[in-house]
Every structure is written in structure tokens, then in C-alpha cells.
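In this supplementary section we document a worked example of the pipeline. Step one takes a protein sequence of length 416 as its only input; no multiple sequence alignment statistics are reported here. Step two produces a three-dimensional model, which step three serialises into C-alpha cells for compact storage. The input and output of this example are shown verbatim.
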Amino acid sequence: MTPNSRLHIDLDAIGHNVRCWRAALGQRAGLCAVVKADAYGLGATPIARHLADVGVDMLAVYSVEQADVLLEADVDTPLFVLTPTTDPLGTGRLRACAARGDLHLSVDTLDQLADFERAGRRLGRALPVHLHVDTGMCRGGLHAEDAVIAAERSADSKHVTLAGVYTHFAAADRDATFTAEQRQRLRRVMLNAPALRTGDILTHVASTAGAVRDRRNHFDMVRIGLGLYGYGAMLRDGATPIDGIDRRLRPAVRWSSRLIHVQRYPRGERVGYANGHVLDRDSVLGLVPVGYGDGYALSASGRGVATLHDGTTSRQFTVNIVGRVNMDQVVVDLTDACRTIDVVRDMEVDLISNDPASPCALPCMADRAVSSCHETLCRVSPRVARVYDQTDQSVTQEPARDTIAPCRVSNTLITT
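The serialised model returned by step three reads:
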């Protein structure tokens, strides 16, 4: 049996993208790879293992629970926990990681700093902490005056080590002026806190958009998430990304399925729930077994497109989603493709293409769904099989059993 659809993750493309980022960052800035939210829905454990192999400096996760998952998988790259937490040492694995000095924690309040000092005292080792300064995101973080206090307390403490200071840009993809203002606000905090001006403290401010906007945003480290997978390097205000990196990154994600039904319908028939689409011509419609239960956006109803692959001629055809997206399936209009090729059941269909010029490339599909690349990836259901492709192997992570369809398997290694 084979899954109804597969999310293909090209590990070679991710390795290529890491090398592109290294070249763009130069020798000074380190690379922190953000793998929170299960690596944006792509599978944190295999992605983190691959990133460790290609040599990133740090892995960022949202919570200590996410950190513990990577530690259980024997990932030994230093981990940075982004969310405020009061109990960072809840498991033996976390305590061992902290004892090695490889568990870096974010400080958002003075009370939290005190919690970390108590945890470090119990562990018998100073915990590395990064002060999170709110410079305009208004989503947690220390106010400027508290950041100065936290810096001095950390510098004087035997139970925490001041390892970093950082902020998060609110609109780096579209507002150069406000991004520069946030950078300057952080600099003012650092000028007011001598403890933050020593050479062994990491300053980091930029995620993908901030990193491609301005080299002044690189500081000592950048936090790259979407850019690892080949997306997010285009700036919405039309500014030019550094080093032309937007043209050099390789999209790493493809979501594929197949036609399970093909049938002709006369002009005037109504397609889908609520009679949402009226055929304006005699049409050939196909059924693809992917729907909002798999994470394909309901908001793409009547707006989304897919790519039909003809295995005989290697040609590709853009086909429209017609009618409403269902829980488990969508209807595609095959009429134009049928004028050129013989469209039959089991032909491959891409819901997301890894061709950046395709109408169903991830950024295009996110726009069609009135969404973002981040959300589009994160919403893909765990029941969709993840396939990790490399030049020397291809391994599939089996999805939940309720999505298995009765048809023949391709020659792909299935693991659990």
C-alpha cells in the first residue's frame, strides 16, 4: 500500500542552502538553524540530524520538550530554547545537555532569570542564557531597562553564564526603516549594559528576511528557518537580497499525490459542496485524494492550482482546483491537458512544486491560500508521509494508518 500523498524533503537541497548561507554570512557570523514546530512540519529529528551533519552551529527550538525530542534522537549540536520556561531541566537528557553547556535558554523576565539561577545552583553548573530584548515586536522579551538589570545580574552570577543577547524583527521582509530602528534600539541597550559588550557574548537579531536585507543585521549569528528550505529570501518591498541569495537557494519541498478518478461532465454541471463552481464548458474532472484533513487549505477553494505530470512525455500541465476543497480530496480541471495527452488514473500530481517557477511553488500556493509559507508547511498533517530524499537513498516516514489507500507500492524504503 502507498500513502495518499507524500511530502518530499530534499536533504541535498537543504545542504546546498546551508552552504549558500555560509557563503553569504562570511567568516564572522554563525548559523543557528531554527527547527521549531517539528522543523516547520518537515520532521525535526531527520532534519536536525542532517543539519548537524552539514555543520550548523546551533539548533533553535521553541520549547524544552522539543529540545528533549532531539536529545532523545542523539542530536548533539548545541540547542537554543526560544520560549520562556521555568523548568529547563525536567528530564535526565536535558540535565545532561545543560551539564555539557549545550542547552542555551532565553530570558524574557527578571523572574525567569532567577528561576535559571536556582536551576543552575541545583545542577552545579552555570546555565548559558540569552537575554531576549523587546525592541518593537511586543511579543515577550525584556524591556530595555530590565535588560540592563538582567545583564548585570547575569554577569555577577555563578549559576548562569551570559552567553547571548538578541531581539526579533517584526517586519524585516517589508519595512527597512523599522527594522533599522529595532537594530538601533538593541544597540542602545548594549551601550547601557557593559556586560553585553564583551567579546564572548553572541549578539543575534536576524531571521531569514533580516539576514538577506542588510549585512548589518548579521552580528555574531543569524537564525535561519524558512531559508534552510529555500524560501523566504524575497523581500516584499522590492529590496535586493544580499549576494543574490534568493536566486541561489533551492526549494527543498514537494507535495505529491495522484489522480484516483477521471470523468467527463457536461457544461452547466455544478461541482462540489454548495454548488460552488458551475462548469462553463464540457469538462474532464479529476479527483486528487488530498484535502483540508491533510492540511491543504480550505481557503484555496477555487483559487489553488496543481501540476499534472505525464510520465510518458515528461510534460507538465497546470490544472486548477475547482469547487470547494473537501476534507480528503480536491477536484481538478483536466480539460485543457486532455487536449494534448491521454489523462488516466494514477497520473502524478503535485500540490506543491519544488520548481520555483511553477504556479504551485510554495510561495505562490501560500499567496493563493491567503497564507504564508510558514503556515502552509506547518499545517500539513502528520498523516501525510514524509519522504527524505538524498542522492544515495530515499526513506519514507510512514503516515497514520487511516490514510493508506489500496494500491501498489513504488520501490521506496518504508520505515517507522
